[in-house]
């Protein structure tokens, strides 16, 4: 069954054999499933891609779809890495984003391509700590995860 209005029929029979059927409509809410995001370090290849492993819970009734967002875990000086600003400006840099679709119970290694600005930053620093955040859902679940920090290396 999926979330939303569901019709439930209840048939009651007493000890004398008399029975009665009652039909009720119930509003079923989506459940919440917590996904663990990996915090393992990874390497970025020459094309600016890295591998990230993700799973869809087996209790999901439909495909898990959503978005993974990767940003620097702390503020970095973007003036040095291609931003067109005159003053030193520390910001959280968005490194990559990945829209995913996984079948229930499926675990997949995603090939995530980073943005050019982040590739310039990584070329200078050699390793950067990223924070992964996840949003998503399936037919019967809202997917949630605690943001995970991990290191990417050149």
Key phrases:
7-stranded mixed beta sheet, 13 strands, 1 helix, 54% strand, 154 residues, two-stranded antiparallel sheet, mainly beta
Structure characterization notes:
By secondary structure, this protein is mostly beta strands. It is built from one helix and 13 strands; from the N terminus they run ββββββββββαβββ. It has one helix at residues 116-125; strands at residues 4-13, 19-28, 31-34, 42-43, 49-55, 64-72, 76-77, 90-91, 94-102, 107-113, 127-137, 141-144, 148-153. Strands 3, 4, 6, 9, 11, 12 and 13 form a seven-stranded mixed beta sheet that branches. Strands 1-2 form a two-stranded antiparallel sheet. A hairpin with a 5-residue loop joins strand 1 (4-13) and strand 2 (19-28). It is elongated and about 85 Å long. The relative contact order is 0.28.
Shape estimate: elongated
Number of helices: 1
Distance between the termini: 46 Å
By DSSP, the count of extended strands is 13
- Evaluate the radius of gyration: 23 Å
Helical residues, percent = under 10%
* Largest sheet: number of strands, sense, barrel closure: 7 strands, mixed
Low-pLDDT runs of 5+ residues are none
Strand content: over 45%
Oligomer: single chain
* Structure class: mainly beta
Query: How confident overall, as mean pLDDT?
Result: 87
In short:
With 154 residues, the chain is mainly beta. It is built from one helix and 13 strands, in the order ββββββββββαβββ.
């Amino acid at each position: 069954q999926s979330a939303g209005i569901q019709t439930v029929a209840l048939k009651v029979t007493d000890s004398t054999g008399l029975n009665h059927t009652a039909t009720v409509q119930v509003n079923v809410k989506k459940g919440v499933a917590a996904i663990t995001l990996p915090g393992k370090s990874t390497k970025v290849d020459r094309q600016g891609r890295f591998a990230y492993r993700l799973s869809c819970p087996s209790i999901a009734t439909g495909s898990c779809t959503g978005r993974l967002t990767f940003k620097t875990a702390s503020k970095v000086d973007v003036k040095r890495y291609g931003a067109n600003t005159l003053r030193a400006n520390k910001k959280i840099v968005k490194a990559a984003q990945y829209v995913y679709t996984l079948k229930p119970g499926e675990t997949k290694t995603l090939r995530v391509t980073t943005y050019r600005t982040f590739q310039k930053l990584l070329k200078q620093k050699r390793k950067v700590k990223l924070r992964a955040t996840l949003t998503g859902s399936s037919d019967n679940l809202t997917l949630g995860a605690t943001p995970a920090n991990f290191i990417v290396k050149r």
